[in-house]
Amino acid sequence: MENEEVLENTPETLEQLVNELNDYKDKYYRAVAETENMKKRVERDKTQAIRFANEKFARDLLETIDDFENCLKLEIDDSMRMGIELVYRGLLKTLEKNNVKECSYDLFDPQFHEAISCIESDQESNTILEILRKGYMIEDKLLRPAMVSVS
Known about the structure:
The chain is of the alpha+beta class and 151 residues long. The chain has helices at 11-51, 55-73, 78-97; strands at residues 100-102, 113-118, 128-133, 136-138, 141-144, 146-150. Helix 2 packs antiparallel against helix 3 (78-97).
């Protein structure tokens, strides 16, 4: 018992011990709260990582989609066109299954559209007149803005 400190049984000592106990309780509660916050952060990050794991891959595929669309604008024989359309539609279905969808084109929205040119028109201002390159979203996140001409 050499290392044990003998405490006097006085009100000051009791108050000191109660204060120390309260400090330790406070530190404990803060550590528990921080651990819970960390668990929630890790879970949220994991969910986001899973949710957007295909983002880069999908973005790379958009160039192939563009190539197919450009190819379908060319004058080619019907059997070739049917084959290209079949592959193109399959690619679009695959993207759709992975929550990649085309942006809407109602009115110009700088969050989803990139105005390449403004054209004089009798249409309402900020109306999209031409889509030069389609825009796409993955879930609720912009994957690629659309390039458009607006009035």
